[in-house]
Amino acid sequence: MTGVAEPGGAGLARPMLDCRDMSKSIPAVRKYMTTNPITFEPSLTLTEAQGVMKDKHIRHLPVCEGDKVVGIVSDGDLYRASALTGADPSKLALRDVMVGKPYTVSPEAPVDEVVGEMAAKKYGSAVVVDNGHVVGVFTATDALGAFADLLHTRLR
Description:
The chain is 32% helix and 26% strand.
């Protein structure tokens, strides 16, 4: 940061952004994603998924058939589905409540592009896929961590 005297001011300086370090390359999602995520089959019950998500402190869970990502569920999705009148979470499967065709990205995707898409479409997460295999999850919380890191390293 540099300072510039205000015209007519008493020598008080206001901070100005020093853009010299802003030309660094944008890091890839790989740097900030949660690695080795737990995945579940679409047939898993909501009760089973909620138990694992609670125990492991997971908020976004990719749903896969074999190696293929077929959906994603959040803890909020499971909570809302379980709260429906007459719903029995021990009988409902993830396939009944998952969001099909989740947003997927490569681990090398630039974090700014992923965050931009997540914000534009109001996605809470992106499933990170490499060579057809789920290798990570990039969440809104990860995006905030990336934002803090980038502010810290580029604007100080």
